[in-house]
Amino acid sequence: MLTFDFRDKTAVVTGAGGGMGEAIATAILEAGGKVLMLDVKQEPEGYARFGERALYVQGDIRDEAHVNGAVERALSWFGGIDYLANVAGVLWFGRDKSALEMDLGIWDEVFAINLKAMVHMVRAVVPHMKARGGGAMVHFSSVQCLRGDPIPQDAYSASKAAVGALSRSLAMQLAAHNIRSNAIYPGPTHSPMQARWDTEEKVAAVGSHIPLGRVGRPEDLANATLFLLSDGASYITGIDLIVDGGLLLK
């Protein structure tokens, strides 16, 4: 089991109401850190055990005023911000289709959640990282944007490709301020986003197509995220880390 020390550090995690975001926020809290958690969902019960080190703010991160207000609450509560994990996103099966036929209103909504909200978060926290003398960010893309799909979700794939591009641009822009920016590209992961895998048989069937023989767990992504945020990755910025059990080897 990997161990990290995040005492005296404060992180902001989006999508913390479940799945990978919840696993990341919980791991940082268990490592002694303080966390501002953002999600449209209600707060999971598990955060209560961390007391005042856990600040959960429910709301829509497409709303820049909401984001700025939540960050200001965290600053008054914790005193500063060191890390950002942009995990929130949507994958809308059935509505997100080929760009040749989909409702472009859905296209705009997916981009607002998967990409523009990331911009809101970065704009809100970077000045405070600069004030601390540095920081680190991890942004969640997807291996889906690196490969085609016979059943396309083109808005999802395009928005996730843009996440990686923006992460690399931020890495270059902010390196002089000792702020690192990296992107993680998860493969198939058993999380609430994949509600279609509603039986153990379906999960096993998906896992059989992955070289390591299983789908990912939220904890797999939490481990990768905490490494990239930690001082152990202090010389790593602008990378795209694929965490997919070897899927892209096939």
Short description:
With 250 residues, this protein is α/β, with parallel strands linked by helices.
Structure description:
This protein has 250 residues and is of the alpha/beta class. 39% of the residues lie in helices and 15% in strands. It is built from 6 helices and 7 strands; from the N terminus they run βαββαβαβαβααβ. The chain has helices spanning 19-30, 64-78, 104-132, 154-174, 200-207, 218-229, and strands at residues 10-14, 34-39, 54-58, 83-86, 135-140, 179-186, 240-243. Helix 2 (64-78) runs parallel beside helix 3 (104-132). The chain is globular. The chain starts with 9 loop residues before the first strand and ends in a 7-residue tail after the last strand. The model has no long low-confidence stretch (mean pLDDT 93).
Task: Present the secondary structure layout.
Elements: E1 10-14, H1 19-30, E2 34-39, E3 54-58, H2 64-78, E4 83-86, H3 104-132, E5 135-140, H4 154-174, E6 179-186, H5 200-207, H6 218-229, E7 240-243
Parallel strand pairs: 1-2, 1-4, 2-3, 4-5, 5-6, 6-7
Helix pairs in contact: 1-6, 2-3, 3-4
Question: What tags apply to this protein structure?
Answer:
6 helices, Rossmann fold, 7-stranded parallel β-sheet, alpha/beta, 250 residues, 7 strands
Q: What is the radius of gyration computed over CA atoms, rounded to a whole number of angstroms?
A: 17 Å
Strand content: 15-25%
Number of helices: 6
Q: The CATH topology is what?
A: Rossmann fold
CATH superfamily: NAD(P)-binding Rossmann-like Domain
